[in-house]
């Protein structure tokens, strides 16, 4: 008859409980994060600040401090938040791999128009940095002097997104539902672009001036010159408007 061991083996310990996943959040916890405009992303385990458009580092009280300093969230609304964040087992946004290119834009992340190098995987939102990259990494210098140079070396106007602020840890290219032109040449940082509405207004104003000059040339120029001599220089458009109010036939 086999004797039982005086020291029986203890039962195996229960498996360690893993970190809380987004699916295990209670409705109250989920509502609290939404009220603070925090987006719990999956499958990549990061917490995104919606107003800022990037993922936050989850360590210690950093998220609570971010809400206080950046968005003036009062302390009572932040009480217990750090413990909740810790229970989620979130990753450092700097260590999370970028999303694949070609996906629709992430709803909670900022979208930036930028450039993608045709010769490698370099992406940036900076006009100056992409030119420096071409020069340093690929030996392409003084190429901006040639028309259409950018089509040979970069995709411009692509939609870029990143987990980190200002793309510090790299971008991926998001695919919008509408086609995006990739032939827009980069502008120097700090150089204002041409505003479409202002250009249209200038074109209309120029056309109006041309039409009024033509009217003046057909017989009104003499009267307008006499008026200008008596009262000083007067804008052409003002002269024509004044004549219309008088009811004169132009």
Radius of gyration: 32 Å
Q: What proportion of the residues is helical, as a percent range?
A: 25-40%
Structural class: alpha+beta
CA distance, first residue to last residue = 128 Å
Strand content is 5-15%
- Number of helical segments with 4 or more residues: 8
Number of strands: 7
Low-confidence stretches: 14-23, 180-205, 220-231, 234-238
The best one-word shape is elongated
Average pLDDT reading: 75
Protein name: C2H2-type domain-containing protein
Biased composition (Pro residues): 7-19
Region (Disordered): 1-26
What this model shows, in words?
This protein is of the alpha+beta class and 250 residues long. Helices cover 38% and strands 11% of the residues. It has 8 helices and 7 strands. It has helices spanning 27-35, 62-71, 75-78, 81-87, 127-138, 149-153, 196-231, 236-246; strands spanning 38-40, 47-49, 54-56, 112-117, 123-124, 154-161, 172-174. α7 packs across α8. It starts with 26 loop residues before the first helix and ends with a helix.
Question: Main attributes?
Answer:
250 residues; three-stranded antiparallel β-sheet; single chain; alpha+beta; elongated
Short note summarizing the structure:
Residues 1-26 are annotated as: Disordered. The protein is an alpha+beta fold and 250 residues long.
SSE diagram, text form:
Elements: H1 27-35, E1 38-40, E2 47-49, E3 54-56, H2 62-71, H3 75-78, H4 81-87, E4 112-117, E5 123-124, H5 127-138, H6 149-153, E6 154-161, E7 172-174, H7 196-231, H8 236-246
Antiparallel strand pairs: 1-2, 2-3, 4-5, 4-6, 6-7
Helix pairs in contact: 7-8
């Amino acid at each position: 008859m086999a004797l039982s061991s005086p020291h029986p083996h203890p039962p195996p310990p229960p498996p360690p409980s893993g970190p809380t996943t987004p699916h295990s959040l209670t409705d109250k916890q989920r509502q609290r994060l939404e009220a603070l405009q925090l987006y719990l992303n999956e499958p990549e385990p990061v917490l995104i600040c919606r107003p800022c458009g990037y993922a936050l580092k989850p360590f210690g009280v950093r998220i609570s401090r971010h809400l206080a300093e950046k968005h003036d969230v009062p302390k009572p609304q932040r009480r217990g938040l750090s413990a909740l964040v810790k229970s989620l087992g979130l990753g450092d946004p700097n260590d999370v791999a970028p999303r694949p290119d070609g996906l629709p834009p992430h709803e909670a992340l900022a979208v930036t128009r930028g450039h993608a190098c045709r010769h490698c995987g370099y992406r940036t939102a900076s006009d100056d940095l992409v030119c420096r990259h071409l020069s340093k990494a690929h030996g392409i210098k003084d190429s901006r002097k040639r028309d259409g140079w950018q089509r040979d070396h970069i995709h411009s106007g692509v939609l870029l997104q990143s987990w980190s602020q200002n793309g510090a840890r790299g971008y991926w290219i998001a695919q919008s539902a509408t086609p995006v032109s990739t032939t827009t040449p980069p502008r120097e940082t700090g150089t204002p672009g041409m505003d479409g509405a202002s250009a249209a207004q200038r074109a209309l104003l120029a056309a109006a001036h041309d039409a009024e000059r033509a009217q003046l040339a057909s017989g009104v120029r003499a009267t307008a010159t006499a008026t200008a001599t008596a009262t000083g220089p007067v804008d052409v458009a003002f002269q024509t408007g004044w004549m219309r109010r008088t009811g004169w036939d132009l």
